[in-house]
Amino acid sequence: MGAFVISKRFNDEYKFVFTSRKGKIIFTSLSYELKFECEEEIDKLKENIESADFLKFKSSNGKYYFKLMLKGCHLATSRKYTTSLRLQKGIDEIVKYGSVAEILDFSANDFIFED
């Protein structure tokens, strides 16, 4: 089963990623100024995953990626995939496990390595 992982960016804004069962990041969200905004977006996505749209793209270097849209709003962008089949497997994992995925909050861990 996948998981939503909340963390902080270097600019102190919050983001979340969806990781696969194997621990690979499937997509990364946009930035949120407040943590509760991030949590609300995850909840909205979990409740409405079946109505989410996945806009597929191919980059200039031949990699595939998607943008996750919910009710016309861009929520997240996927990692780059080498084939369209792998891209589709990433989307399938979100659809299958997104509504039941747990939420992990690592935003309080500012310093992983001590000086």
TrEMBL record:
<dbReference type="InterPro" id="IPR036913">
    <property type="entry name" value="YegP-like_sf"/>
</dbReference>
<dbReference type="InterPro" id="IPR051141">
    <property type="entry name" value="UPF0339_domain"/>
</dbReference>
<protein>
    <recommendedName>
        <fullName>DUF1508 domain-containing protein</fullName>
    </recommendedName>
</protein>
